[in-house]
């Protein structure tokens, strides 16, 4: 009966199979970490200068808000797809540096006009989300389509995204508030290659 020690080419086959199994295991672990935990992105523009420069690499922590799951095949066909987010271990805070996908990559901007008064911001966002009409009477009572509106909970989390370098940033000032499902995660680490 032949053993691995007695037949040299069987030892080489065994070693090659061990290396292949280790490589496949590493690829699987890398893919799982990339989908659910961390991923890297390259800074494409000057919008975050001086903190982040074009060409900088950032590691994004997806576990803060939770990893996003969606149909890659439909997204590759440039179709809008529903995005599901697994539970995260944190929340977005003011001045966090976030990585997000362009919500309007094909020019179809649902613009929410921004002005100096918060009431106008909320009015337009609610009307846009509900496809209704918001009005405030002389006593300050708010109505949505002639129904009393005592409180309101938005259907999505919306964020105002702004770059550090305002003249070079194409941000929420141009395309409106960002729905939370477009946020990939929070920048955790920066490095140069």
What would the average pLDDT be, to the nearest integer?
Answer: 77
At the first level of CATH, the class is: Mainly Beta
* Strand segment count: 11
Unreliably modeled segments: 108-119
Number of helices: 4
What's the end-to-end separation, in Å?
53 Å
Percent helix, as a range, is: 25-40%
CATH architecture: Ribbon
Computed CA radius of gyration, to the nearest angstrom: 24 Å
Give the structural class: alpha+beta
Looking at this structure, what is the CATH superfamily?
Answer: Umud Fragment, subunit A
Major sheet details: 4 strands, antiparallel
**CATH topology title:** Umud Fragment, subunit A
Q: Estimate the global geometry from the Cα principal axes.
A: elongated
Q: What are the key terms here?
A:
193 residues, alpha+beta, Umud Fragment, subunit A, three-stranded antiparallel beta sheet, 20% strand, elongated
Task: Give an overview in words.
There is one protein chain. Helices cover 26% and strands 20% of the residues. The protein is of the alpha+beta class and 193 residues long. It has a single domain, classed as Umud Fragment, subunit A (Ribbon). The strands form 4 sheets. The chain has a 4-stranded antiparallel beta sheet with strand order 1-2-11-5. The chain is elongated and about 95 Å long.
């Amino acid at each position: 009966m032949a053993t691995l020690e007695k037949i040299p080419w069987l030892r080489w086959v065994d070693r090659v199979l061990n290396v292949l199994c280790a490589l496949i295991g590493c690829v699987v672990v890398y893919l799982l970490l990339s989908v659910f935990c961390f991923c890297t992105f390259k800074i494409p523009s000057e919008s975050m200068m001086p903190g982040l420069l074009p060409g900088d690499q950032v590691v994004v922590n997806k576990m803060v808000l939770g990893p996003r799951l969606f149909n890659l095949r439909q997204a590759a066909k440039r179709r809008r797809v529903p995005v599901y987010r697994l539970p995260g271990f944190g929340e977005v805070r003011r001045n966090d540096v976030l990585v997000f996908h362009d919500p309007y990559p094909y020019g179809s901007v649902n613009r929410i006009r921004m002005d100096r008064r918060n009431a106008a911001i909320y009015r337009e966002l609610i009307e846009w989300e509900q496809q209704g009409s918001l009005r405030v009477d002389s006593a300050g009572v708010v109505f949505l389509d002639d129904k009393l509106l005592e409180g309101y909970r938005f259907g999505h989390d919306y964020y105002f995204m702004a770059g550090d370098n305002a003249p070079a940033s194409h941000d929420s000032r141009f395309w409106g508030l960002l729905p939370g499902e477009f946020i990939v995660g929070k920048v955790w680490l920066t490095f140069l290659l």
